[in-house]
Amino acid sequence: MSELDSAASVGAQKTNLLGLSQEKLEAFFTALGEKRFRAAQIMKWIHQLGVSDFAEMTNISKALREKLGDVAEVKAPEVVQQLDSVDGTRKFLIKVGGGNVIETVYIPEGDRGTLCVSSQVGCSLDCSFCATGKQGFNRDLRSDEIIGQVWLAAKSFGQFAPDGPRKITNVVMMGMGEPLLNFDNVVDAMNLMMHDNCYGISKRRVTLSTSGVVPALDKLSEVTDVSLAISLHAPNDEIRDELVPLNRKYPIARLLESAQNYISAMPDAHRKITIEYTLIDQLNDRPEHAEQLAALLQDVPVKINLIPFNPFSLSNYKRVSNNALRRFQQILIDRGFTATIRTTRGEDIDAACGQLAGQVKDRTRRSERYKIDAAAFVKSNSDEIPVRLIN
Ligand code: SF4
After folding, report:
1. Residue 118 shares a structural domain with residue 257
2. Total domain count, the chain
3. Residues 258-275: pLDDT tens digits?
4. Is 240 in the same domain as 354?
5. Has 123 been annotated as catalytic?
6. Ligand 1 close to Cβ of residue 103 (< 6 A)
7. 60 and 85 inside one domain
């Protein structure tokens, strides 16, 4: 039995074309006995026009459309809930099977609209300041589930309509999960974001954010040249060991070396690494910490993004005071750095990563209180959400 016959046989799982790269789509059509250019046609239908029904793909012959209907599908994950903040931030809770949900957040800012995309269901790295880390790890997202977040968001904004608004101008792989621990699927999805037949987002506007999986970062420049952000959050290894346990394996010096190697491999000069630094009251927000950070980064091409910690129920950390935040920023500016403060967005919808999904599912049974929060969330939001609160 051929691959095609096998796929078409009763009960066989259909191939989801949503997350397939151009190369994989070409291989798919070749296996069907079709020309490779069909891949480009399908990519445009799916990612530029938002069409998921083969019957609507009118420049494809009826026979091929019927054949596709037998062996393939275009299937995005399902939005469980969409939350809109008064400040324009939009959050999607997306069902990914097994009672799990992930989060995708859209943040508008002037003429820019940034979509924060998740790469894993939960996260294994357990950073102490992170709501996602408190949920434990469930699984990697497939490429269709990653690009599906962009597809769903674009659809919700009417971006696929002729002359529809181009709302998503930037994507950051900064949602739930560590993207470099789901390397191949994340690279495939990012390539679709940037592809001219898909969303056509420039490589400077697609950013991968990592907490420091150095071996994978060492390989990244071989397959992509997207922008890079490092979740640093500390000016020295002692503090970072507490905030980002992965630091004990790959300390700051090794991480910065790998990040610089990545940037150096870029064909275009003047690329900078974004340093993310979450300020937590009394932990990493003092003037001496700002001085240490400036010394640490003095020879690294960076821009620094200061993020006030957003408290959540499972963490005892406190939000930085406005005075400490401004003082920290000023020290960095005085040392010649570009240092911006990320304003808190979507507070009314718990837009910080992992906050809301965490209320839906606590995989690690770390808090009885959390279970009660989750039960209250599910009860008050929908009888239909098929979540298992605890495994
Ligand atoms: S900060 Fe990122 S890497 Fe760390 S636990 Fe949260 S999602 Fe994982």
Report:
1. yes
2. 2
3. 999 999 998 887 889 999
4. yes
5. no
6. no
7. no
